Amino acid sequence: MKIEIQGHMCCSSGTKNVIDMDTIEKKLLENRVKAVYNYLCENEVDSKRLVYKGYGHCQPKIVNETNDFHE
Could you tell me the pTM of the whole model? Predict the structure, then answer.
């Protein structure tokens, strides 16, 4: 079985990625999905079975998604 770890974002617009406040790099999604990837690898999941990708907000589950912060 191959597993794709996906990162999505709902609450930003205009860019595929935003600033990761921990690293001050514009790689928030990549850093998030890579952290999950690393965790799985460290816990004995074969890295050959895993891939990861940040999709930004280009594949929303819910169109015009909002949360309590936006209301």
Answer: 0.66
pLDDT tens-digit profile, the chain (71 residues)? 899 998 877 665 555 556 666 766 667 778 889 999 999 999 999 999 999 987 776 666 666 656 665 55
d(CA 56, CA 41): 23
Distance between CA atoms of 9 and 49, rounded to whole angstroms? Answer: 24
Q: Are 17 and 56 in contact (CB under 8 A)?
A: yes
Three-state secondary structure string covering 3-63: EEEEEECCCCCCCCCCCECCCCECCHHHHHHHHHHHHHHHCCCCHHHEEEEEEECCCCCCC
Closest CA to 6 of 25, 32, 26, 44: 32
